[in-house]
Amino acid sequence: MYDSINDANRAIVEAISSGQPVLVDVVQARDAIPVLAGEQKVLLHAGPPIRFEEMTPPMQGSCVGALLFERWAATEEQARAMLAAGEIRFEPCHHHDAVGPMGGITSPSMAVVVVENRQGGNRAYCTMNEGIGKVLRFGAYDAEVVARLEWMRDVLGPALAQALRQTADGYALIPLISRAITMGDEFHQRNIAASALFAKDMAPLLARTDVDRGDVAQVLQFLSDTDQFFLNLAMAACKSVMDQARTVQEGSIVTAMTRNGKDFGIRVSGLGDQWFTAPVNTPQGLYFTGYSQEQACPDMGDSAITETFGLGGMSMIAAPGVTRFVGAGGFTDAVAISDEMAEIVVDFNGTLPIPTWDFQGAPLGIDVRKVVKTSITPIINTGIASLEPGVGQIGAGTVRAPLACFVQALEALAARYGVAADD
Amino acid sequence: MYDSINDANRAIVEAISSGQPVLVDVVQARDAIPVLAGEQKVLLHAGPPIRFEEMTPPMQGSCVGALLFERWAATEEQARAMLAAGEIRFEPCHHHDAVGPMGGITSPSMAVVVVENRQGGNRAYCTMNEGIGKVLRFGAYDAEVVARLEWMRDVLGPALAQALRQTADGYALIPLISRAITMGDEFHQRNIAASALFAKDMAPLLARTDVDRGDVAQVLQFLSDTDQFFLNLAMAACKSVMDQARTVQEGSIVTAMTRNGKDFGIRVSGLGDQWFTAPVNTPQGLYFTGYSQEQACPDMGDSAITETFGLGGMSMIAAPGVTRFVGAGGFTDAVAISDEMAEIVVDFNGTLPIPTWDFQGAPLGIDVRKVVKTSITPIINTGIASLEPGVGQIGAGTVRAPLACFVQALEALAARYGVAADD
To answer: A196–B192: do the CB atoms touch at under 8 Å?
Structure first.
């Protein structure tokens, strides 16, 4: 359909930069994701396909928590026995219009945000951020974790859904992302501005629902306390935009990057649904007091969809406040990282100017050819989970995508289209 | 008491950087400011002392609005007659522990925030931000303006006061300013991050008051819509800190900068309550559609207390997002401005690291000697009012403090202490 791979790439980056993700609802996952609505017990997980036995301990811990939350099991022992016996079917979030942070474990009754990309009409889903400390996404599964998931399903989700129904046409996410990028968010490890803007925008809407006033206060407190709340909205927004962009089924642009704790997988616009994978790296970064690199779980989570879209580590310079948090140095280091990332993209996103980059737009469209030619792989800002399930987050850092999956993808492009890194 | 002027200056900047302003209450001005509690009709105004006849048209318009709001007059004509007849006594805000934005007109029934500096126990007061459009501080005084002031007195103020009573010990402002400086606020023309953080922090507290639920929704909506809400809190915070610092009655540090539309005035630590004044400049900047430089009112407002503290234009580099808004260029221009301001201060504020300045602290302690020696005067980020009363804000820009007041102050320091610019 396109005269050249560059023309196809141009169409893809235009689709990305003109995406219009809008938060329209919060529902239970089964009401939005058909595979979770059947009789069979199904869990979604982060990353390319993986079997339970191959998962990291925290990802397995998340599965235990999901079984307890769904009341498929009454005890941890029972849950682990069911999982070991293969009674649970696993599917990647990415195969079902969804993305999940860290373990990405998503079960039918969990509350998910519904983001519609008005440009294509497609939708994407993501669970909501549980806050910090002991949380399911980092592998914790005790009674506190399950109780919070129940509250999110029964109170937080329905309250936000009622609030959103008061908006004329949903809550547009690109204008918010654009405002917050001016406020130092990169939308992977730093979402404090977007979360605050979202909380203050929702507050009057929540006050005008018929939700019990005590519950409204609790919801407002949760939104106020949860500085990373917007991460999951950003993930769903990026997923909805990248999924629409990849309907252009040509070109060499990366349309998904994700990790399951074992493999790092990418999808490429001209190569359909195929995953190109390589072993994940383990993040390097700064650790909370009492923890160290030896306890770090290998890289996991669908949250690298933010980097795929051009945010997160790609836009490090937008968030000098996060550079230190992830152990990546000071302001000049942040500039150097985004300047390096600029070498592997085909354009800059004019809808997301970065003031600290002299108003240059966020990096736009990672080109497999450029990655292979330069050997520069995307840098990802990430939370670091403890290898031990139940502990949760122990730090934050950066991790590189492994070059091997880009090399494989380029080989596949060469085989199919005769494309080379130098084209 | 101090061995040298540098020792005195050191004591002052230590007092500034260790200030602990805490928002403790919202009350009617008469309940906090004795001069407004008497029988006599008194209005506070911005800047050094000025008579009604000398005020700019918008500042006079603010006076009309205040008389209508206080029901001292029933019509504009009656208000203007009373003002012309000298029936109203005028006092500078700065003489009564207060600061006021733009015209700074503060009348007894207006709601004011109460900020206590825990370091010294002293308090400072400021009216609350009315939002944009037709507002009293820019000289508007129609029924809509008066009705909003009534709502702020009767609903917004009491609701926030109730919310604050739920905090253990008030709402600490330096931690908030420190967080928001990482989010691109400079706290004069850009307060969007601090305002959002404040709104989301107040939201659950407001929900837990016994204020009518519809009123809570209105308050949350107002806080959500008012991106400059935090400016007035920042002003009161800076005033409380600078007033405590100036109890060190020696040295050459500027402890207040303010403008009344006619004169720009400064106070200096070693020179007590004396104002050193020179004619104000008119801001240069960008204008809203339909307005231009010819319609710009000369510089006014106590808001330059933020620059005195080291924020606003002094910290331009913290807010590259505002640099364009005030017509001051791009990121490199913002760097250049703060680098220039660094030449006239004695230190940097370690409690307010600026990520975009490679984590150097905000400029701390404007030294009259350095200003005169370099001829670099502080740059102030400011809103621009229409010369015509009732119109309101027509743009935003920057304005330089006039050198003459610093020269006068240095002459006074020379006369009293034998200090020269080269000391």
So the answer is: no
**A412 Cβ partners below 8 Å, 6+ apart?**
A268, A271, A274, A276
Beta carbons of B331 and A208 less than 8 Å apart: no
Q: How many Cα atoms sit within 13 Å of A210 on the Cβ side?
A: 0
* CB-based contact B258:B276 (threshold 8 Å): no
Nearest to A224 among B200, B208, B321 (CB): B200
ipTM metric: 0.94
What's the CA dihedral at A195, A198, A201, A205 to 10 degrees?
A: -110
- 3-state SS, chain A, equals CCCCHHHHHHHHHHHHHCCCEEEEEEEEHHHCCHHHCCCCCEEEECCCCCCHHHCCHHHHHHHHHHHHHCCCCCCHHHHHHHHHCCCCEEEEHHHHCECCCCCCCECCCCEEEEEEECCCCCEEEEECCCCCCCCHHHCCCCHHHHHHHHHHHHHHHHHHHHHHHCCCCCEEHHHHHHHHHCCCCCCCCCCHHHHHHHHHHHHHHHHCCCCCHHHHHHHHHHHHHCCCHHHHHHHHHHHHHHHHHCCCCCCCEEEEEEEECCEEEEEEHHHCCCCEEEECCCCEEEECCCCCHHHECCCEEHHHHHHHHCCHHHHHHHCHHHHHHCCCCCHHHHHHHHHHHHCCEEEEEEEEEEHHHCCEEEEEEEEHHHHHHHCCCCEEEEEEEECCCCCCEEEEEEEECCHHHHHHHHHHHHHHHCCCCCC
Q: Cα separation of A99 and B130, whole Å?
A: 42
Contact residues, chain B to chain A, C-beta under 8 Å:
179, 182-184, 192-193, 196-197, 199-201, 203-204, 207-208, 213, 216-218, 220-221, 223-224, 320-321, 323-324, 330-332, 355-359
Contact A182 B223 (CB under 8 A): no
Using a CB-CB cut-off of 8 Å, the residues of chain A touching B216 are 207
Closest C-alpha to B382, from B220, B252, B264:
B264
Specify whether the CB–CB gap between B193 and B200 falls below 8 A. Answer: no
Which residue of chain A has the CA closest to B332? A358
Say how far apart CA B89 and CA B83 lie, in whole Å.
9
What's the predicted TM-score (pTM) here? Answer: 0.96
Residue of A nearest to B215 (CA): A207
Residues of chain B positioned with their CB less than 8 A from the CB of A357 = 331
What pLDDT is recorded for position B389?
Answer: 81
Instruction: Please state, in angstroms and rounded to a whole number, the distance separating the CA atoms of residues A257 and A269.
Output: 12
Count of CB atoms within 10 A of residue A358's CB?
15
Three-class SS of B154-189 = HHHHHHHHHHHHCCCCCEEHHHHHHHHHCCCCCCCC
pLDDT tens sequence across B172-226 = 999 999 999 999 999 999 999 999 999 999 999 999 999 999 999 999 999 999 9
Angstrom distance (rounded) from CA B364 to CA B350: 9
Is residue A203 within 8 A of residue A220, CB to CB? The reply is yes
* Record: contact B220-A203, CB cut-off 8 A: yes
**pLDDT above 70 coverage of chain A, percent:** 100
Closest of A51, A84, A50, A48 to residue A67, by C-alpha: A84
> What domains, with CATH codes, occur in chain B?
23-233 (3.90.1710.10), 249-417 (3.90.1700.10)
Using 50, 70 and 90 to split pLDDT, how confident is the model at B320?
Answer: confident
| Per-residue pLDDT at B243 exceeds 80 | yes
Residues of B in contact with A200 (CB under 8 A): 196, 199-200, 203, 220, 223-224
Q: Which of B45, B162, B60, B53 is nearest to B93 (CA)?
A: B45
